[in-house]
């Protein structure tokens, strides 16, 4: 809600007040990751911001003009770099120009999209609407230390094209990237081998770094039918066998492919801001709680914007 709210505050020029932020959490208020997204969005649109501090439960955001440029920010923890990007990309999409954003934090962490999911799935989908994004992954960052370093480059025409994605048909190719740092490479090989048991035609690539800020392993799978893209991922953790990491990712991708949606459930909520701005339609196998929250948040700024059919299909509402 915070990420979408400040993005649409910048897009619409409407001032924003958010109260009781994370009030029911053990540690209420802004965490480092939220503060970083708020700070970066504030820089990009020259906003006046009150309450921008760790633990704050009240934020006031008065946006200025959105500006492309070069920005650099360190989350300071293993907070997700992709969720920080998720905050600012819709706003940058509305203005013609180019941006270069240097981020330090978590590249592959729980409860957030891994960086390779953005490269393999989200960014190819965004290119269809006219937003070109690339990632240069300089260093991986895992829990608990973070320390991952990426550079995101964004090129926007300022005029988004409608996003119309038909249900996926025959999948032509499956690609997997296993990332591993400061751990034996054979762990990554075991992850990939488990994927191949379920997806024998998959093309698996291993990205191994001998040293990094913290050890970790994960995998992202993607597939395309030539028109749309779907993905799935799994992350290693202490005590979790490599085979389970590979099996989770394969099963998640198979679940997406079997339902014949046009995007996976992770993309379904992340694409909503662009659908609201440009129009179009797509479907997913399930309308997640994240997607419902995103719809509610966007419609607080734009009014009635979406239609939902059978709990799955999200369409731009044409009044």
Textual characterization of the structure:
The mean pLDDT is 94. The protein is globular and about 50 Å long. 34% of the residues lie in helices and 27% in strands. A hairpin with a 3-residue loop joins β14 (306-309) and β15 (313-316). With 319 residues, the chain is α+β, with helices and mostly antiparallel strands.
What topology emerges from the helices and strands here?
Layout: H1 2-12, E1 16-18, H2 32-45, E2 48-50, E3 59-62, E4 70-74, H3 81-93, E5 97-105, H4 115-127, E6 131-139, E7 148-156, E8 163-164, E9 173-181, H5 185-198, E10 203-209, E11 216-224, E12 229-235, H6 242-259, H7 265-270, H8 272-278, E13 280-282, H9 289-302, E14 306-309, E15 313-316
Parallel strand pairs: 4-5, 8-13, 9-10
Antiparallel strand pairs: 1-3, 2-3, 5-7, 6-7, 9-11, 11-12, 13-15, 14-15
Helix pairs in contact: 1-2, 1-3, 1-9, 2-3, 5-6
């Amino acid at each position: 809600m915070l990420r979408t709210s400040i993005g649409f505050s910048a897009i619409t020029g409407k001032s924003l007040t958010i109260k009781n932020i994370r009030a029911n959490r053990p540690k209420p208020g802004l965490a480092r990751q939220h503060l970083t997204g708020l700070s970066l969005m504030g820089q990009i649109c020259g906003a006046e911001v009150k309450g921008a501090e760790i633990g704050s439960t009240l934020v006031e955001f008065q946006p200025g003009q959105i500006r492309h440029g070069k920005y650099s920010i360190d989350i300071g923890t293993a907070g997700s770099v992709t969720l920080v990007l998720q905050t600012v990309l819709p706003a940058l999409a509305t203005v013609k120009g180019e941006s270069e954003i240097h981020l330090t934090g978590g590249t592959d962490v729980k409860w957030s999209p891994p960086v390779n999911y953005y490269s393999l799935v989200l960014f190819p989908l965004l290119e269809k609407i006219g937003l070109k994004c690339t990632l240069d992954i300089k260093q991986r960052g895992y829990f608990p230390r973070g320390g991952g370093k990426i550079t995101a480059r964004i090129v926007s025409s300022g005029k988004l094209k409608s996003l119309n994605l038909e249900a996926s048909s025959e999948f032509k190719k499956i690609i997997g990237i296993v990332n591993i740092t400061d751990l034996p490479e054979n762990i990554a090989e075991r992850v990939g081998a488990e994927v191949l048991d379920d997806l024998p035609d998959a093309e698996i690539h291993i990205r191994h770094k001998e040293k990094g800020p913290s050890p970790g392993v994960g995998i992202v799978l993607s597939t395309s039918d030539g028109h749309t893209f779907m993905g799935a991922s799994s992350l290693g953790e202490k005590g979790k066998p490599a085979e389970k990491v590979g099996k989770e990712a394969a099963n998640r991708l198979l679940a997406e492919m079997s339902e014949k949606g046009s995007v996976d459930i992770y993309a379904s909520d992340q694409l909503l801001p662009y659908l609201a701005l440009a129009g179009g339609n797509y479907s997913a196998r399930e309308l997640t709680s994240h997607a419902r929250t995103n719809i509610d948040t966007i419609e607080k700024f734009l009014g009635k914007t979406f239609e939902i059919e059978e709990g799955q299909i999200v369409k731009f509402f044409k009044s």
